[in-house]
Design a protein that fits this description.
homodimer, 6-stranded mixed beta sheet, globular
Chain lengths: 683, 683
Amino acid sequence: MTRTGTVPDQGRLAQLLKEAGSPLDPAGVGQLAAGVLAAPPEIGTSWHRLVAEPTPPALAAALEEVRAYLAEDYRDGLSAEDFARLPRPARLALLREELARQGLDGFIVPRADEHQGEYVPAGGQRLAWLTGFTGSAGAAVVLADRAAVFVDGRYTLQAAAQVDAALFEIRHLIEEPPAKWLAGAVKKGTVVGYDPWLHTPQEVERLQAGVERAGASLKAVEANPVDRVWPGRPAAPLAPVLPHPDEFTGDSAADKRGRLGRALAEDGAAAAVLTMPESIAWLLNIRGGDVPHTPLPLSFAILRDDGSVTLFIDRRKLVPGLDRHLGNEVAIEPPDRLGPALDALAQSGKRVQVDPATAASWVFDRLGRAGGRIHRAADPCLLPKACKNRVELDGTRAAHRRDGAAVTRFLAWLAREAPQGGLCEIAASDRLEAFRREGEHFRDLSFPTISGAGSNGAIVHYRATPETEKRLEPGTLYLLDSGAQYLDGTTDITRTVAIGLPTPEMRDRFTRVLKGHIAIATARFPKGTTGTQLDAFARRALWQEGLDYDHGTGHGVGSYLSVHEGPQRISKAPNMQPLLPGMIVSNEPGYYKTGAYGIRIENLVAVQPERAGASAQNEREMLCFETLTLAPIDRALVECDLLEDAELAWLDAYHTRVLETIGPLLDRDSATWLEQATAPLGR
Amino acid sequence: MTRTGTVPDQGRLAQLLKEAGSPLDPAGVGQLAAGVLAAPPEIGTSWHRLVAEPTPPALAAALEEVRAYLAEDYRDGLSAEDFARLPRPARLALLREELARQGLDGFIVPRADEHQGEYVPAGGQRLAWLTGFTGSAGAAVVLADRAAVFVDGRYTLQAAAQVDAALFEIRHLIEEPPAKWLAGAVKKGTVVGYDPWLHTPQEVERLQAGVERAGASLKAVEANPVDRVWPGRPAAPLAPVLPHPDEFTGDSAADKRGRLGRALAEDGAAAAVLTMPESIAWLLNIRGGDVPHTPLPLSFAILRDDGSVTLFIDRRKLVPGLDRHLGNEVAIEPPDRLGPALDALAQSGKRVQVDPATAASWVFDRLGRAGGRIHRAADPCLLPKACKNRVELDGTRAAHRRDGAAVTRFLAWLAREAPQGGLCEIAASDRLEAFRREGEHFRDLSFPTISGAGSNGAIVHYRATPETEKRLEPGTLYLLDSGAQYLDGTTDITRTVAIGLPTPEMRDRFTRVLKGHIAIATARFPKGTTGTQLDAFARRALWQEGLDYDHGTGHGVGSYLSVHEGPQRISKAPNMQPLLPGMIVSNEPGYYKTGAYGIRIENLVAVQPERAGASAQNEREMLCFETLTLAPIDRALVECDLLEDAELAWLDAYHTRVLETIGPLLDRDSATWLEQATAPLGR
C-alpha cells in the first residue's frame, strides 16, 4: 500500500520539540502517538499537551503529521479489512500452534481486560480478534481439536453472524458456561491455560472446579498466548489525564483519601488495591480518555490507611501540572511496579483489602505468593462514589438542563423534519449529537446512541449502521436512547416518538410503559429498600396485560464517569444494595414487539430523603426520587383513559416543569414547539 | 407429694391386654404412655389403638388409669413449678460440672432439634430447660466463666423477662451471633462442644470459623451433656401414625416414590437422606401427631433411586395396618439403625443426596467417615410438596369453605357479643375454636391463635394469657389470627374487627393495608417471578404515607401439613424460588401502632395459571392468585374514598363470593348477619 502522507521530517521535529521544551525526542513522540492511535478518536488534539505545553502551532502541525503518517499503518486487527488479510481460521491456527509451543492443551479467552470494565481498549479485545465476536459479554475456549464461543441471549443472533461456526461451537454463556463445557470437553491430564490478569478469583475458582471434575487442570500463564500471535496488536491507549476540579467534585481528593484510609484502618486493613479506573478517577479527582465514552485513566492504585496513594500509571499520559494536583501524598509509579509494590505490602504482614468480584486473579496470586494476608471486601470507593454530594447533584442538575435543551431542540427539529420523509436513523442521531456539542462542558457522548426506527426499535441493543438503518416512516415509532458526558454530570435519556399517526395498540403499550415509569418516579420507600424490591412497580401495568420487557428497570450512573455504575440496580435479579440518598439511577421500563416497534421511556432520577413534612405520618425514614431528566414525553402516544388521575397529574406537572426550566434556554421556534409539546392533558 | 390416682392393677391390666390380643405387657404400656405424655394433649385417646385394635372399653379405661397415674409424676422440666424445684442457677451449674467431666470448656445449646422443625417436642427443648427462654428461635452458649443467650428482635422483651441476666448475657442473634461472640470470648486452646444432631453443616462451618479465629476448636459430642443433667427429661413423643388416604393426597405414595427416585437417578444420586418429617409424611402419605398443631411423625428416611424407602421410626407409633399401607417397598427400621444404614450407603460408593440447609451435621459426618460421596442438594420433596395437585387444591377449597363458615359464625357471634362488654381475648378465641371443631375433617388448630384486643393487637407475636389478656373495648380494634388442620387442607386467616366506632386514623390505616392485600390478590405476573418481586405491591399504599410493617407478606402453606411451609415466600428478603402453579401462600400485610392497635388482613391464595383468553395480549406465560379464604372483611373499617374503583369492585366481588359460598352453610342468624356484612360498598 502506497503511503499518501508526507514522511515526517525527523530533524525538524527534533528541533521543534527542543524549542518547545518537550522531554520527548521524535522516537518518543512516535511511541506516544501509537498510544494516541489506540485511544478513542475523541482525543482530538488534546494529546499535544502531553508533548509540550503550550504547544506552538508549528509543533502541533508536526505532531499531527506524525499521527497521520502512523495512522496509515495503524491496524487494530479488528476491522473487516484485517479479517480479510488474516482470516479467522488462520488466527485460530496460529493460537493453537502457540499453545502447543507453550505446552498447553487449551486456553480461555474472556471478553474482559485487566480492569473488568465495560469498555475494553483495542489491544485488550482478544475475543474479538480471535473470533470476530464483538458483543459486550462473552468468552471463548480453545482446545486442540475443539473450540467454543459463549454468549448470552442478547447476542445469539450477533454471534451467529460474526463467528465462524465451522471453527467455534456457539454455546449459551449462562446455561452452559465455560466451566461446564470444559468439564465435558477435556480429558484427564489436559492442561488448560488462562491469563490471571483477565479473570476474577471467583471466575478462576469456577473454571478450576469445572476442569478438575474431568481430572484436568488449570494453569495460569505469564504471557497471554493471544498477544504473541496477534501481529501489530495495538499499544495501550495514552489519552491525557487531567485534574477534575473541586467545583465539579465538591470534595477534595485529600479529604476522600483521608476518609477512605481511616475506614480501611477501622476494618483492620493497612491498604486496599484498586483495579477499577472509575474508582481511581473518583478518588484522586482525575479524568482520562483511554476508552470510549467514559473519561477513564486506565491505571491501578494502592490506597493506604494513612490516606496516601501510589498510582501505577504511564506517566506520559499525565498532563503537565497533574503531579501538583495529585499532591505529595500520591506517588506515581510505572504500571510494571505494581508487582513489587504488592510484594512489599505482603511482606509487611498487614491485611490488604482486594475485591474478589472485580480485581484480577493475578493480584490475589501475587499477594498470596508473597505471604500476604488478603481481606476480601468490596472496592472501598464503590459506595461513596455512588452517593453523590450536594455539588455533584447540583452539577448533574445543571448538566441535565443543558442536555434537556439539546434533546428538546432535537425533538422540535424532528417534528419538522420527519414528516418530510427521507430522514434516517444515523442522520437523526448525528443531529442530536450536534445539538449536544453546543452545550457548555460537553465532552463526549456517554455511550453509542441507540437510534431505532420502526422495527429496529424492537432490538434492545440496536446500533444503527449504514447497512441496517431504516427511514423514519409515518405510522411507526422512533426510539432514541442517548446520553452525554458533561464535566458536571453524565446523562442518559430515552424518548419514543410517534412518526405520523400511531396505532391504538402503540398508544396502549406506550401508556402502560409510562404508568410503570410514573410508578418508579413517584415511589416512596423506607431507607433500606433495594432496587429489587421496586422493580415490579415498573412492570405492573404491563403484567396486567400479560406483557413484560426483558431488561432491568434501572442502572446506576456516575458523575462524569460511567453511565453504567454500581453497586445499586433496579431489576428482577436479587441486589442487596439499599438505595441511598445521592444515588443516581435510570428509570427505563419498555415494551418491544419484534418486527414492529420498540418503546422505552427513560429518565434519570436521584434518590432523595422525603421532604420533612411532606407526609405527616412518616414513622419511617422515607426516601423518594427526584427526576433529573427534563424533556417532553410524546403526548401523541398517551392514552389518557388508561391513566389514573394521579398519573395524569404527574405527567402534566412534569411537562410544566420542563417548560419552565428548559423553555428559557431555547431558540424561539423550539420554545414554541415545546409549549405545544407540554400542553396539559389533564381532565 | 401424695398421689391422688389409683395405683393401676398390673395383674388385671396384663389380663386385659392378653384378652385384647395386644403385643404389649404392662411394662410396655408404661413405656408407651411415657411417649404419649410427651406428645401434645390433642392425642386424646387415639393412642389406644397402638395397644390393641379394637380397644375393649375395659382396657381403654385401664389404659387411661395408667396414663393418669403416670401423668401425676410427669414433669417436663419446663414449667414454672419445675423451675422452682430446680432453679436456673442450679441447672447451669449442673451443666458446667458435666462439661468439665467431659473435658469440654464450653457447649452450644441451639433451639433446634434433630429435625430443624418449627415445633420441638418437650424432650428436645434444651434451650428452654437450661435458660427459661421459650421463643421459637435462639441459642445459648455456655463457657466455664461466661454464658450468653442469643435472640432476634422479636424476642428481646421476652428474653429479658424469662432469662436470668445474672447467669446469661443477652445478645442479638443477627448482629452478634454465637460464632462472632465465641470468637471474642474463647481463648487459644478452648474446646467448645456441640451436638452434631442439632446443627446443620452450614451452622457448624460458621461456628468453626468463629472459634478458630481465636485459636480455639469445636468438638462434636456423642451424647448431649444437657441430656445427662436434665432429670426426668421427657421421652420422645409417641403419637399414632396413620395413613393419609389418596382421596386427600391425590397421588399415591408409590407414584411419588417412583417419580422422586427417578429424579435422583437423573441427578446421579443413588439415594437421598430425608430428615424432615414433613417430607416423609408427604412422600409416604402418612400423618402423625408428635408436635403441636402439625400432624408430623417424627422420623428419618432414606429414599433410593428405585423408589424404595427405609423409614426409621419407632414402630410402636404405627397404627395396625400401616405396614400394609406403606407397602413392600418401604422397610421399617428402628431409629438407631440410621447410622449403620448410612454406613452401608457410603460403602456402596454411590452419591448420596443430603440437604445442607436442613439436615443434621451428624448425617454428613457419618457418611463422610464411612467414605461416602455426598451430593449437597435441597430435600427432593420440598418443591413437589409445595405444588399442590388438583385433588389437594379441591380439598383445600372444601376445607376453606368449612373454615370460612366457622369464622363467619364466629364473627356473627362476635358482632352480638362484643357490644355487651365483658368479652375477653381467650373466651373469644375459644369460641372460634369451638365453631371450627364442628367442621368435618377438623383435627386441630394449625397454630396457637393470636387473639389481640386493643394494644395487644400491635404485638406481632402476641399470645393471650390470663395475665395479659384484655377485654374487647368499644373504640378499639380486635385482631384475630387463627387457622385449622383439616384432613383435606390447612387454613390460616386473619381478620381485624372494629369494636364499636373506629377512629378515622384506624380506617385510613386499615384501608391502606387492604389496598396492599388487594394488590397481591389481583397480581398477575410472568412465570419465573419470585415472591421477593411482589412483596412491595403489598406495601405501596402504606409507603406513600411513610408507614410499613416489619414482617413478611406471605409464607407457603402445606396440605394437612405445616402452616409455615417453604420454599417460596413473599418478603423483602431475597428468595430465589419462583411462584409456581399449585403453591399456596398467605397474603397478609398489616400495620401496627405500638400501644394502640394492630391491623392485619390475611387470606390464603393459590397460584394459578392465568385463564386462557382472560387477557388476549398474553405474550408471556402468566400466573395469578386464586383467593381460597372466604370470610367477610370488616366494612366498618373501609374508607371508600381511599379505594380505586377497581379495588372497590374487588372487595364487593369478594364479598359476593363469600355470601354465595358460605351463606348456604350457615344457621339463619349468621346468614342474616353475613348479608349485611357483605353488602356492596361500591359507587
